[in-house]
Amino acid sequence: MTPNRDVAASAPGADRQHLVACEYCDAVYQRADLATGEQALCRRCGGSLYRESRRAYQQLLPLVATALILFLLSNVFPIVEMELKGIRAKTTLWGAVQALYADHMVLVALLVFATTILFPLAEMMMMLYLLVQMGRRRVPTGFARIVRGIQLTRPWGMIEVYLLGVVVTLVKLSSVADILAGPALWSFSALVVVLATMLSFDPRDLWQYLAKGPPR
Amino acid sequence: MVVQRVGGGAGDHAVVRSARPVAVLGEGTAAMSVPLSLAATATSMGMLPCHACGLLSPHAFEAQPCPRCQTVLHRRKPDSVESTWAYLIAAAILYIPANLLPMMTTQSILGTSYDTILSGIAYFWISGSKALAFLVLIASVVVPLLKMMALTMLLLSVHFRSIRRIRQQTRLYRLLEAIGRWSMLDIYVVAMLAALVRAGKLATIIPGPGALAFAAVVVLTMLASLSFDPRLLWDTLDANDD
Ligand SMILES: [Zn+2]
């Protein structure tokens, strides 16, 4: 498919875009304009229907860029350093993946790699691509597939769980060795905060901004 | 305030309410006084919501691509009940070796020791980190167990067409969606320990078969909750109204 500049104007189903169905109970509502920070809840089951996201959308590109830089720093520097009887040891996230791999836990190594490196990175790259293209007033090639890709990878990115795992490891070892938090621990913490803001943006909302047409 | 309209632009057989905007922090408890069955649903309007982009399409589009995003449309997640049962049963079976087999084996000059999830929790408890013992207990034992029991209950509700406490059941499902990922905690702890001890050549920590079984349980319970469709609960209610 070739990107079509007029796709937004003649978008299919444009007459139904003011409707929203609850994904938990199937109730249908008309979309209402929300103020900043508001969220529409289903009156039948209490589930979230959609959020006001205009400001979040405008802040998304710098946020994704920050997340990518923090992600890079977090993976380059050691996350935990320890010293025991004069022996120093340190590891990065990649080191943990390698250790599992070397211990013949290939599947677990793959899972750790996918949930902490591959999926978070893929999501950030897909967001970056869409936002840059949309910022240049283009309809990104493969838009629909990439939005879907972001939705599918999202449940499997678990950086915040990993960070908690690192904290548990630090406490566990602190009784037997001298433990030093590596620089990556701080960048990981910052990354978790940035990602939390990024993840509160529903990628399906990108359709709303695409449908509204490129600002001319 | 809440605007109620009958047949508001979406066809004259439908009752369409405008979504009630609620501030993020204030969970809409007032909304809970709404009668459960008054809602116009996508099904009652003859519409299919696209799970990928949210657009509603006429129900003639079943198994056809969404006109806006080309994702194949389904009224409900395909084979939802069957796949949820399958993932759930597999997870329940693996939950046993995940708890019994060692998560890691530690070899040092002092000898060899095997750590299971429970002995790891006991270690934290004895060494004084009671908060941490509690945290790991919740993430590794309680969450997977709760998730499997809750999903079983939801599946049974769908099967027996029960609509008791349907709002609470739907809320429970949303909770499951949110907490499942935290069970990965112990896997990350084992990975970090193995990496550090290996780097320091202090001892050998080898992740055990328990880690593999446990990782599988986490993935399977996540797949189970992702394949469950909570709208099936509401289908029973909506069918009773007709
Ligand atoms: Zn609902």
Briefly say what this structure is.
With 216 residues, chain A is an alpha+beta fold.
For the largest beta-sheet of chain A, the strand count, sense and barrel status come to:
3 strands, antiparallel
Q: What's the helical proportion of residues of chain B? A: 40-55%
Shape by Cα distribution of chain A = elongated
Q: How much strand content do the residues of chain A show?
A: 5-15%
Structural class by sheet pairing and helices of chain B: alpha+beta
Labels describing this entry:
heterodimer, A: 216 residues, alpha+beta, 3-stranded antiparallel beta sheet, 53% helix, B: alpha+beta, disordered N terminus, binds zinc ion
Structural topology:
The complex is a heterodimer of chains A (about 220) and B (about 240).
Chain A: E1 19-21, E2 28-30, E3 38-41, E4 48-51, H1 54-76, E5 80-84, E6 87-91, H2 93-102, H3 106-135, H4 143-153, H5 159-174, E7 178-181, H6 183-199, H7 205-211
Antiparallel strand pairs in A: 1-2, 3-4, 5-6, 5-7
Helix pairs in contact in A: 1-3, 1-6, 2-3, 3-4, 5-6
Chain B: E1 4-6, E2 15-18, E3 20-23, E4 47-49, E5 56-58, H1 80-100, E6 104-108, E7 111-115, H2 117-126, H3 130-159, H4 166-179, H5 185-200, E8 204-207, H6 209-227, H7 231-241
Antiparallel strand pairs in B: 1-2, 4-5, 6-7, 6-8
Helix pairs in contact in B: 1-3, 1-6, 2-3, 3-4, 3-6
The structure holds zinc ion.
Report on this structure.
- The complex is a heterodimer of chains A (216) and B (242).
- Chain A has helices spanning 54-76, 93-102, 106-135, 143-153, 159-174, 183-199, 205-211, and strands spanning 19-21, 28-30, 38-41, 48-51, 80-84, 87-91, 178-181.
- Chain A has 216 residues and is an alpha+beta fold.
- Chain B is an alpha+beta fold and 242 residues long.
- Chain B contains 7 helices and 8 strands.
- In chain B, strands 7-6-8 form a 3-stranded antiparallel beta sheet.
- Chain B is elongated and about 70 Å long.
- The model of chain B is unreliable at 1-18 and 21-33 (pLDDT under 50).
- Classes of the chains: A alpha+beta (216), B alpha+beta (242).
- The interface between A and B is large, with 80 and 89 residues.
- Strand 2 of chain A pairs parallel with strand 2 (15-18) of chain B, so a sheet runs across the interface.
- The structure holds zinc ion (ZN).
- The site of zinc ion (ZN) has 8 residues of chain A, from loops.
